[in-house]
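Working notes for the structural subgroup meeting. M.R. asked for a predicted model of this chain before we commit to crystallization trials. I am recording the input and output together here so anyone reviewing the notebook later can reproduce the run.

Input as submitted:
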Amino acid sequence: MSLQLHRPDGKGGLEVRPVTDQNWRNQLKSSRWGASLKGGTLPELSNPEMNPTSTFRSVLFWVALAAITFIVIVVGYGVALPAVGHVYALPTPLPTITPIPA
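Returned structure, recorded in token form:
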């Protein structure tokens, strides 16, 4: 069994499509693939939608995000601490009554 391509012959049958080249990469003649360019390499293309962020700015962003998160957690815990103590306060024990000695 082969993986040859077949096409209609116009009479209701199929005819074998002749194989022209075994290496499909030779058919890539578009300039975007770089095959027709000198040296066969792609040209340097700029991407106007992508401006890389500097390492300093990205590190500064993550450090600031961590600091803000830490502050929010600490302040939130500090504000909620009195409320938690009030809500979960233990009931006061009943006074103990001792009999008067006779």
